[in-house]
Structure formats: C-alpha cells, structure tokens
Amino acid sequence: MTKETLQAFIGTWLPRLEEEMRRTLDCSEPALEPFYGMMGYHLGWRNAALEPERLPAGKRLRPMLCLLACAEAGGDPFDALPAAAAIELLHNFSLIHDDVEDGDETRRHRATVWAVWGVPQAINAGDGMFALSFRVLQRLRGIGVDERVVLDVLAHFTTTCLELTEGQYLDMRFEARDDVTVEEYLRMISGKTAALIGAALAIGARIGGASLEQVEDLRQFGRSIGLTFQIQDDILGIWGDPAMTGKAAGNDILRRKKSLPLLYALNHPHAGPHLHEFFVEPPSPQDVPDVMALLDEAGARAYAEGELLRLHEEGVIALARGLGDNARQSALYGLAEGMLQREA
Amino acid sequence: MTKETLQAFIGTWLPRLEEEMRRTLDCSEPALEPFYGMMGYHLGWRNAALEPERLPAGKRLRPMLCLLACAEAGGDPFDALPAAAAIELLHNFSLIHDDVEDGDETRRHRATVWAVWGVPQAINAGDGMFALSFRVLQRLRGIGVDERVVLDVLAHFTTTCLELTEGQYLDMRFEARDDVTVEEYLRMISGKTAALIGAALAIGARIGGASLEQVEDLRQFGRSIGLTFQIQDDILGIWGDPAMTGKAAGNDILRRKKSLPLLYALNHPHAGPHLHEFFVEPPSPQDVPDVMALLDEAGARAYAEGELLRLHEEGVIALARGLGDNARQSALYGLAEGMLQREA
User: Do both B205 and B67 map to the same domain?
Assistant: First the structure.
C-alpha cells in the first residue's frame, strides 16, 4: 500500500468508522440523551450545551490501525468496523477517567468532561463508554463474523482492558515515587499505551483471517510501535521544537514529568543526584538550561533515541514475520517509519 | 427445592463462588499486587494494610440467583460459576464507583476504597474490576460451555452493564431535581437495581439450558423481584424498626432520600407542597413525626406496599411461565416470598 493508497484508505474508512461510533451512541430515550450527550461531547460531536458540533475528528490512529491490519491480512475492513469502533471507544473511556484522575481541566483545547459536568457524572459517563465498547463488539456477530473469531476478539479486547487499568495504576503510583527505574517505566507504558495499539492490530488481523501466529506477530509489532510512539513523545516533550509541538521549550521538565529520558538521567550516578535537587520543587523556566545540561551529561537523549531505534527494529522484524515479503510495501511499515520522523 | 435444600445449595456453592472470584483476582506480578489488593479489600478479603482478612462474605445474592437459575433450568451450577462471579464483580465495580460519586466514606462499617486510597486510585480500581468481570466470563469457554451460549451470555451481560450506568446517570440527575415522578423513579431503579438481578437469572438459565422464552421469563421474574427488593428497602428506610434495620427511625427522611413513598407523597396535591417545605433544608429528627403524618395523609405507605405486591405478583407469574408446574416448589419462589417479609 503506497502513501497515496493509504490516504485513499483513510478517506474511505474514517467516515465509516465515525458512523459506526455514532450509531453506537444513538439514544432513543429522551431522558438519557444528556448521558450519551456527554460522551458525544468528549468525542467532539457536540458542544458543552450538547448541541451538534463538528470538530476535526482526530486521527483515530488506533481504529485505523485495526482496519489496516484487517486489510493487510486479506480481509474486508467492513468486518472489522465494530472492533475498530470498540477500540476507539475504549481509548476514549480511558481518557475521560484519566482526566478525572489527573485533575486535567482541558483536552484538545476544550474543557474535559468532569470540568463541565462534575466528577460523579464524568466517572459514570466513562463507565458508560466502557460498556458501549463491549456493546459495539456484539455487532461483529450481527454482521456475520464467525463466532469463534468473535470470541477470540472479545478475549483480546478484555485482556487489553485489564492491561490499561494496570498501566494506569502503575502510572499513578510512580508519580508518588522518586526512584522509578527505566524498566518499571517501560512496563508501565507497555500497559498504558502499547497494549491497546497491539490489540488494535491483533484484532484487525484476526478478523481479516490471519493465522494465530500472524496475529501474535502483528500484536508485537503494535506493542513496539506503541512504545516508540510514547518514547518519541517523551523526547519531543524535552527537546521538541516549540514551533512544531505547540508547547513550551522543555515543557516536560517544567511539569516534572517522569518520562524515559528523565528517569534514565535520574538514575545516573553523577547527574542523578543533581537532577533530584532541581525537582524537589517545580523548576522555573530559568532552571531548564541547567536541567538540559545534566540530561546531556547523563546521555539521556542518546539513550532514549537508542531505545526508540531498538523498539522500532523489533517492531519491523515482527511485522516482517507476520506479513512476509509484503511487509516493506505495507502501509503499516510506512506508518512505523513515519512515527520515527515525526516532530510533533 | 425446599428451604433445607436451599441452605444445602448455598453451603455447597457459596465457597466455590468465592474461590472463583478469588482466582479471578489472583496476581502474579508483585508490582501489581496493591492494585488487586484494593479490589480484594473492597470484597472483604483484606484489610486496609492489604493483609488477609476474613469478613463475613455477604449474601452474594445476585450470583446465588444465577447459580439457582442454572440448577432450576436443569443445568449443572458448575458451568455457571464464572458467570456468577462476573455478576458479583460487576455489582462490586458499581459499588466502588457509586461510593466515589456519592462521596460515601463507609460501606458495611468499613472505609470505602476512595476513603482509603483516594479518588483517582478508586476510580481505576473500579475500572479494573469492571474489566475482571469480563475476564472471568472468558472462563466459560475454557470449561466447555457452548460457544453460542457464551456469546449470548456476553450479550446479556453487556446490555446490563449499560443499563447500570444509565440507571446511575438518572439517579444522579434526579438528586438535583424537585419534580421527579414515580414513573421516572421506577425507570431509574429498573436500570440501577433490577437489571442486574434480571441478568443474573437470565444468564444462569441460559447456561442451564433453558429455552429463549424461559430465559426471558426468568429475566422478567428477576427484574420484578429486583424492583420489590428496592421498594422494600424504601419502605424500611422510613417505617422500618430501628432495632431490626440498625438505622435511625425515619433514616431516609433525615437523608432526604427520594425513595418511592416520598416521591409519591411529594406529588400528592395537598401533602406534597407541605412536604416540599420540610425538605428545603435537611430535616431535623424533630421534624420526622410531622413528615410521617404527611406521608400518611398522602397514603404513601399503602401506595408503596401496593406496588410491592403488584410487582411481586408480576414476578411470580413470569416465574410460573418459565418453570411451569415446578414454580411453586422452586427455591426462587421461596426467595421472592422471603423478600416480601423481610424486616431488615
């Protein structure tokens, strides 16, 4: 699949995915409309007064990976639409709850669900979206996907739900700790970020008719690119060009975000103790150059970029196992390459 | 099934249910132990220091109904154990989140999960238990339940998850309103309380080999007794004997709880406006006799007891349709009768 074919693929399937998701949120009972309305608000379909709104829908990266994996395995992406919708709904359920848990008042330049409707309704709206993600999976059976495949998809999906909550648990625990290791961090993002991307690919491939080995290869590919996605984020959060990222220089330093480069440097024998001093209180913008110098001394950027390449390579090998000779021509390969080069 | 056989049934299956639930929460990764530990605390298996504790396990009403329905349909309750565990875990997930949403600091004389570990961890622990309820359902396939049955069970279960969140949404909305009707209230408890009891029976019956009609009859029976269960609670909350309920006389009046008798009276042409005056501020214990007199004037108790009997009758009819001549001998019939007579 060339870059042009990928664009055409997205042009065809993104609107169908949105339609599948909208139908899942349809509500015929007037008293419940505001309940589904809160979820529609989070997804960018309504404003805070619950009037229709059409915001840019976002990339819908995870569900598009699911549909692509289905196509690459030789299946019809139509069969994977309910699963793709489920994956995006699950992702968004976790965002609604993360925003409550982190106390974040804005997301994508809009007030978060809890900031508009309060914490109790936001928790429950998230629970509702969690339930809807399972409900739309029921549609697989309705459109004639083999029952054994449906059960396999449900098994993958359920495991992923649990991994998400495990990852979130670790993330919250780590915030309260000063001595998190890079291994612990990689374990955490493996649950919180990589598991769902792995599941998106595995589920798409399974529905597309891939063998169990291929499904596993695509999951590993997904997990690897999920990790590279997060680590690239970590690198950009410190060294990204503010003109490209739209965030302040050294943004993650000011937020004391325990990302991979910082954790690596905090564990460095010499730079580590100095860095710790800077992080007792929230650092000021004037501290950023000193912190950057300590990160350099620890070799934090080189380490993170090395991990990025290592994981990318692992992913590409898994993809080659899964797709054989077609791997290099695959849109999935192109997407993985693109992630390495992104600057925002 | 006589009362003695029912006791024997519970004696046999309650420990197996606990075992099934415990196995579902088993954790082999040390870093995640406290995550599953919070859930174990909520279930009464650990104290707040996460050390093992053995509290009375509770009645586990919903899962026992599931196992009973399986047996009454002619099946082996063993096959329904994972589903029964899923139902109890789903119920407990909703309790963990309800406690956060309502700000309740104690449950069953212990601090709630959020009161011990904070709101963010409690939200996430609830999400984890939600995911575990789906995970244990996967075991149905492992023990050899027919794949079509497993998919039907998952469909029932998923619909119920959604109904729970819809009911909770309505409950929270109603708290902010002064003009809730009894119809709206019955709709709300139908989602929040009755749906899960209906699902417990429907799912047990389906696994036990019941026909689709029987499954539907048992669901209706379950919904009806779920509603009577809640309405009996409402009656006891106002007129219950403090020596039996362990709560203050007129407890729900002091809490301004919008239960069925109160809503009925608030909508009464004469008593209603007077009652509203008492509820502008939280009433004091001295107000209770006056409020009681207004409830009497409106005929609120007679109305609620009438609804109780009407719903009970509906339930018994559905049960008779489902079980035929065996209905009156069924332990399910006895349980429904017992609910009418309970005083705590």
Answer: yes
Interface test with B, best of A33, A101, A124, A183 (most B CBs within 10 A): A124
Q: Are residues B128 and B156 in the same domain?
A: yes
Q: Are A198 and A222 in contact (CB under 8 A)?
A: yes
| Of the residues B191, B210, B229, the one at which a domain ends | B210
Instruction: Among B26, B38, B101, B123, pick the best mutation site for testing chain A contact (most A Cβ within 10 A).
Output: B123
Q: Which residue range is the domain that position B312 belongs to?
A: 211-344
CA distance A228 to A245: 17
Q: Each residue of A57-86: pLDDT tens digit?
A: 678 999 999 999 999 999 999 999 999 999
For residue B89, the chain A residues in CB contact (below 8 A) are none
Contact A120 B172 (CB under 8 A): yes
| ipTM topping 0.85 | yes
Range among A52-66, A324-338, B8-22 with highest mean pLDDT value? B8-22
Listed residue (B185, B317, B304) closest to B233, CA to CA = B304
Cα atoms found within 13 Å of the Cα of residue A293, Cβ hemisphere only: 7
Q: Is A226 on the interface with B (CB under 8 A)?
A: no
Whole-number percent of chain A with pLDDT over 70: 99
Please indicate, yes or no, whether residues A228 and A99 belong to a single structural domain of this protein: no
- Whether B255 and B196 map to the same domain: the answer is no
pLDDT of residue B26: 97
**CA A252, CA A259: separation in Å to the nearest integer?**
8
A187 touches chain B (CB under 8 A): yes
Domain-ending residue, one of A210, A234, A267: A210
Alpha-carbon span A302 to A305, nearest angstrom: 5
pLDDT at position A5:
84
Q: What is the pLDDT of residues B301-311, one digit of tens each?
A: 999 999 999 99
Run of H or E including B314: helix B300-323
Provide the residue type at A79 as one letter.
Answer: D
Assess contact for B42 and B96: CB atoms under 8 A.
Answer: yes
Domains contained in chain A, number = 2
Q: B161: which residues sit within 8 A by CB, 6+ positions away?
A: A130, A131, A134, B90, B130
- pTM, rounded to two decimals: 0.95
For chain B, say whether A166 makes contact (Cβ under 8 Å). yes
**What average pLDDT does the segment B38-44 reach?**
97
A158, B34: Cβ pair inside 8 Å?
A: no
- Among A256-265, A331-340, B297-306, the minimum mean pLDDT is found in A331-340
A36: nearest CA partner in chain B: B166
Nearest-by-Cβ selection for A101 from B124, B151, B155: B124
Q: Give B-chain residues touching A89 at CB under 8 angstroms.
A: none
Residues of chain B positioned with their CB less than 8 A from the CB of A121: 169, 172
Q: Report the range of poorest mean pLDDT among A97-101, A174-178, B269-273, B294-298.
A: A174-178
| Residue A186 touches partner B, C-beta closer than 8 Å | no
Q: Is the pLDDT of residue B256 over 90?
A: no
A31 in B contact zone (CB under 8 Å):
yes
Is residue A178 domain-shared with residue A227, that is, in the same domain?
A: no
- Chain A partners within 8 Å of B119 (Cβ): 100-101, 119
* Burial zone of A74 (CB within 10 Å; 0-12 exposed, 13-18 middle, 19+ buried): exposed
Q: Return the pLDDT at A260.
A: 97
Does B140 have pLDDT greater than 80?
Answer: yes
